[in-house]
Write a structure and sequence with these properties.
heterotrimer; A mainly alpha (about 600); B alpha+beta (about 325); C mainly alpha (about 200); A: about 600 residues; mainly alpha; Cytochrome C Oxidase, Chain A; globular; B: about 325 residues; alpha+beta; Immunoglobulin-like; 3 domains; five-stranded mixed beta sheet; 8 helices; 12 strands; about 20% strand; elongated
Chain lengths: ~600, ~325, ~200
């Protein structure tokens, strides 16, 4: 890449670093999210490997209790907020404008800001390991364990501040994406012609817009309990630990749909293209996705069956929770229906999508089991739940993300990842994943609680714990093979072409990678699978006009500066008011500059 | 067909593994009370239904992959859906869900109903990291080992002294949390008496030594239970041997009396730690994680936080001699 | 060329400007934010173990006055929008200033109330009323403060050579949405906390 440092008269020849720091191009921002998300995925993975190594044998001595509790807390926080969500955001960023036929998102600078704020949140949360202690109250941070009496160290403050900041980033992104999808579709792109991936993105955006405020209030209240003497969640002057649980799970449950819907969207894109036939039951899949989003707000207390809620909530929430199994089942049948009668190209992306169907189903049905409160009386807080969450999150969300990586890598880089190594990596990941997490069903059945740093030898848990640890090491090999694949592929020339898969959606109608302005001519959309429609009706690609005068928003450093301001505000909340004040000043300066900056 | 064979073999192997896990000391698939019988009735329904769905989906996934993977001369069938089939396919999950809901609702009603009259009243209080048990009817306060009579309902009132804990005896009762500021309840009727203890463990992350917060439940015959309540309600046995007497003195000198109660010893009325009046009769110490014998007791007394990270019982830097005396004393508290 | 500009700048699928749509959706998020804070207050209503209790402290006549002030500020905001839409920039600026002043007066009342309550013994940690009341009304007050800064920025920008430009009406309209929302939230708070015992 040309990296001439800024010289007079050559305004486009800035240094590469500066280009990336000031970019407002959704594609570059998408890449930033992807690299950052993947880096945190590796950190979360290391945390997991340490956990499993400690649990490989009874009475293990690899980690002490204190460190173990920090690791399992951080593993969940890292994977959920800093790995899966950002990697999901990476694809949202890169592909929303391309899918709807737009040149960028509605607010390019807000988009850049979202990334810098996410990075700030991630740094705050992860730096906790360096500054004293990482949060160790579990990712769910139940009160009153997390109050200042029982958790006197700063870890839980890193937790509240870090998550508020990261949540802010997600909120900004979601607002941006919602406006973009509503308001910037190409001519002819009605809502019911949107790619399924766009529908899932849209539902996710609204899930976050409506659920993030609730956890923000909860985190604020926890911060006040810990630092300003209030008793929202501690019995002291009449507070209630159960209130924390309600607020947390009103966010927490929609959050899990935030984690899975994007991957469901990816699978809904990959399977039709690879099967060479349209998605089976588009309307049903879209409706099911929307239903899951709406119903997702009505099930939160299934996380609280054992807290003594009373009989009626148990009936109500078990009914709504089991009901959510229905739209999910519909989707699984529709993916199978997409494969049926196809001529399926068995690429690595296909492997991951098919793997998703099988593994997510396992996670889904184990979930439906503990949707029943009596059964949950046995499952809750046992390894059965750990098995469930990892099947839906790894077997579901992560497998979907990997499918998307292999599917969209050529579009983003112009190079196809190596198929042979891709498939070998898939098998390591698939086998490793099942070897790690399926035995956890057995452990749960055998009564092993979760969140325990060690266990005794005579409880019948030894073998499967050992097997699970072996599994995680196999899984790690799969990840390393993927990274090697990426590294080697990037060194090859960019020969993938516009459309290596015979895609149906608009991103394949432009170059790989797309130019900054995405499309030379904004496409007119006549059908749900625009490219296939054009191919079947012999409609040619629009001609590239002789003179292209497309104006794209110029780069800006105000998102970076505002991001720094927000970082300082957060850091100040953990250290001194002076830093917060400085952050406010920096932020205000950035907002002024941003508002007055020309966007032409 | 290949797919069928693969799925069949896999299912059988998984079945074997599940069956093996069902036969473990803390197994959740071994109902021994009315409460867990009610749970088990639902558990079996949802488990086998889930297994059926798993087998079906896995089979279809594998089958379709093999049938429809890219092959010479094939052309993909271009259909967008099939309304009739799609409606049917909504109906199937709905039926499965209803099939799970009916027994589930029944068990909710059964297990959240009020306990029968004449139930044995127990109060269980969660502490970081041990369980306190009180029997108001008998004036008993004990810790970490619960005795209940077979065939009679036991109604447990659940409280917490500090953070959220959870009371879980997999074979006797589904878990219910112990929430500070709240009073929760559960009840169960154990089926039959047996010598072997039922294993139990705290099931809500409660801090550093959550992993070390276990307890035992003994289901006794009425006669044996009656003996136990009489013995446990009584004052502590007076130490007989010289070593034990010296231990009683050491118990005061080392400050144990500050946290522990020994009924009958007016000096030892501390409430912060477990009641030790009859510790000598318990089968385990340190909240179910060590057997109650000389060597584990030595390990514990020498350095409690080393055994149980975060333990409120500090390392008192006891000498060998002091440990011997205390052990003798505690063993004598039968 | 004009076509390329137009489609990237002004044309939207729904016809609503992107920034206005952004504000609407953001306000939906704010509904849940204040909803959670208000729910917390309502859940703890009556749960305070020690005083001072609401009945001891809440001054309905005083707070009715400040509520009236905030309501009037919504009126001046409407007039500011009207002014911007009809290119009567003097009216717009005057009404923006009036809204700012009324907002500041409201904040003044809030500061007085907080200090008065603290003087009478209500702090964050005193009881559930203290915790939930201060957090809820404090965050609302912060929103009013941010609104005042927002409007002041618009006012300062409108005093520059090009003023707020061709999109003055849009900018003032969007600010109006935010301001009215903050006012409506106050009506809900005033009703639930002060009026309904």
């Amino acid at each position: 890449m040309a990296t001439a440092v800024g010289t007079v008269g050559h305004t486009h020849e800035e240094s590469t670093v500066w280009k990336w720091l000031t970019t407002v191009d959704h594609k570059k921002i998408g890449v930033l999210y992807l690299v950052t998300g993947f880096a945190f995925f590796l950190i979360g993975g290391i945390e997991a490997v340490l956990i499993r190594t400690q649990l490989a044998v009874p009475n293990g001595t690899v980690l002490d209790a204190g460190l173990y509790n920090q690791l399992f807390t951080m593993h969940a926080l890292t994977m959920i907020f800093l790995a899966i969500m950002p990697m999901g955001a990476a694809f949202f960023n890169y592909f929303i404008p391309l899918h709807i036929g737009a040149r960028d998102v509605a607010f390019p600078r807000l988009n850049a800001l979202s990334y810098w704020v996410l990075l700030s949140g991630g740094l705050i949360l992860t730096s906790s390991f360096l500054f004293g202690e990482a949060p160790d109250g579990g990712w769910f941070a139940y009160a009153p364990l997390t109050d200042e009496t029982f958790s006197p160290n700063k870890g839980l403050d890193f937790y509240t501040v870090g998550l508020v900041v990261a949540g802010l980033a997600s909120l900004m992104s979601s607002l941006n994406f919602a406006v973009t999808i509503i308001n910037m579709r190409a001519p002819g792109m009605t809502m019911m012609r949107l790619p399924v991936y766009m529908w899932m993105t849209f539902v996710v955006a609204f899930l976050l817009i409506l659920s993030l405020p609730v956890i923000t209030v909860a985190l604020l209240q926890l911060y006040f309990d810990r630092n300003f003497g209030t008793h929202f969640f501690t019995p002291g002057t009449g507070g209630d630990p159960i209130l924390w649980q309600h607020l947390f799970w009103v966010f927490g449950h929609p959050e899990v749909y935030v984690l899975i819907l994007p991957s469901m969207g990816i699978v809904s894109e990959v399977l039709p293209v690879m099967s060479r036939k349209p998605l089976f039951g588009y309307t049903a899949i879209v409706m099911a996705g929307a239903a899951i989003g709406v119903l997702g707000f009505g099930v939160w207390s299934h996380h609280m069956y054992t807290t003594g809620l009373g009989t009626v909530p148990q009936y109500v929430f078990s009914a709504s929770t089991m009901a959510i199994g229905v739209p999910t089942g519909v989707k699984v049948f529709n993916w199978l229906g997409t494969m049926y009668g196809g001529n399926i190209r068995m690429t690595t992306a296909t492997y991951y999508s098919i793997g998703f169907i099988a593994l997510f189903t396992i996670g889904g049905i184990s979930g439906v089991m503990h949707a029943s409160p009596p059964v949950d009386g046995q499952h809750q807080d046992s390894y059965f739940i750990v098995a469930h969450i990892h099947y839906v999150l790894f077997g579901g969300a992560i497998m979907g993300i990997f499918s998307g990586l292999f599917y969209w890598f050529p579009k983003m880089t112009g190079r196809l990842l190596d198929e042979t190594w891709g498939k070998i990596g898939f098998w390591f990941l698939f086998v490793g994943m099942n070897l790690t997490f399926f035995p956890m069903h057995f452990l749960g059945l055998a009564g092993m609680p979760r969140r325990i740093y060690t266990y005794d030898a005579d409880l019948g848990w030894d073998t499967w714990n050992f097997v699970a640890t072996i599994g995680v090491y196999i899984l790690v090999v799969g990840i390393l093979l993927f990274m090697l694949n990426v590294f080697m592929t990037l060194r090859k020339p960019a020969t993938a072409g516009d459309d290596p898969w015979g895609g149906a959606t608009l991103e394949w109608a432009t170059s790989s990678p797309p130019p900054e302005h995405n499309f030379d001519v904004v496409p007119v959309v006549r059908d749900r699978d625009p490219l296939w429609y054009n191919r079947d009706h012999n409609i040619p690609m629009p001609e590239r006009p002789a003179h292209l005068h497309i104006h794209m928003p110029p780069p800006s450093y105000f998102p970076l500066v505002l991001g720094i301001g927000i970082l300082l505000i957060g850091v100040g909340a953990l250290s001194s008011l002076a830093i917060t004040a400085l952050g406010v000043v920096v932020a205000y300066y950035a907002v002024w500059g941003w508002a007055l900056e020309p966007t032409e | 067909m290949f797919s069928g064979a693969v799925v069949g073999v896999l299912s059988y192997l998984l079945y074997l593994a599940f069956a093996d896990s069902a036969n473990t000391p803390q197994s959740t698939w071994m109902p021994m009370s009315d409460n867990t019988d009610n749970i088990h009735a639902v558990y079996q329904v949802v488990f086998y239904l889930a297994a059926a769905v798993f087998i079906l989906i896995l089979f279809l996934t594998l089958l379709f992959t093999l049938m429809f993977r890219e092959r010479e001369g094939a052309v993909a069938q271009q259909f967008h859906g099939n309304s009739k089939l799609e409606v049917l396919l909504v109906g199937v999950p709905v039926l499965i869900v209803v099939a799970m809901m009916v027994p589930s609702f029944k068990a909710i009603a059964q297990n959240t109903a009020d306990p029968p009259k004449g139930a044995l009243e127990v109060v269980a209080i969660g502490h970081q990291w041990w369980f306190e048990f009180q029997y108001p009817e008998f004036g008993i306060t004990t810790a970490n080992e619960l005795h209940v009579p077979a065939g009679r309902a036991v109604s447990v009132t659940l409280k917490s002294n500090d953070v959220i804990h959870s009371f879980w005896v997999p074979q006797l009762v589904g878990k219910v949390d112990m929430v500070p500021g709240h009073t929760n309840h559960l009840w169960f009727t154990p089926d039959t008496a047996r010598d072997e203890a039922y294993l139990a463990q705290c099931a809500e992350f409660c801090g550093a030594s959550h992993a070390n917060m276990r307890f035992r439940v003994f289901v006794d015959t009425e006669a044996k239970f009656s003996d136990w309540t009489k013995a446990t309600a009584a004052d502590a046995a007076k130490p007989a041997s010289e070593l034990a007497k010296a231990g009683e003195q050491q118990f005061t000198a080392s400050g144990c009396i500050g946290c522990h109660t020994v009924k009958g010893n007016p000096l030892a009325q501390g409430k912060a730690g477990p009641n030790l009046t009859h510790i000598g009769s318990r089968t385990t110490i340190a909240s179910g994680i060590l057997p109650n014998s000389a060597e584990p007791m030595h390990k514990w007394l020498a350095n409690p936080p080393a055994v149980k990270p975060g333990s409120k019982m500090p390392n008192l830097a006891l000498t060998e001699e002091q440990i011997q005396k205390l052990t003798a004393y505690l063993e004598s508290l039968k | 060329m004009a076509a390329a500009h137009a489609e990237t700048q002004h044309h939207t699928t729904t016809g609503i400007d992107n920034r206005k749509l952004l504000m609407w959706i953001f306000l939906a998020s704010e509904c849940l934010f204040f909803g959670s804070l208000i729910s917390t207050y309502l859940i703890f209503r009556g749960d305070s173990i020690v005083g001072p209790l609401p009945a001891d402290l809440l001054d309905i006549p005083l707070t009715s006055t400040s509520t009236f002030v905030l309501l009037m500020s919504s009126l001046t905001m409407v007039l500011a929008v009207f002014g911007a839409q009809h290119n009567r920039l003097g009216l717009m600026k005057g009404m923006l200033l009036a809204t700012i002043v009324l907002g500041l007066v409201f904040l003044g009342f809030q500061v007085y109330e907080f200090r008065h309550f603290a003087h009478l013994g209500l702090n964050l940690g005193t009881n559930q009323f203290g915790a939930s009341f201060y957090l809820l009304t404090g965050i609302h007050g912060t929103h009013v403060g941010v609104g005042v800064l927002y409007l002041a920025s618009l006012l300062v920008a409108s005093a520059r050579r090009n003023g707020l430009g061709k999109e003055a009406a849009l900018h003032v309209d969007i600010a109006g949405l935010y301001w009215h929302f903050v006012d409506i939230v106050w009506i809900v708070i005033f009703t639930l906390i002060y009026l309904i015992p």
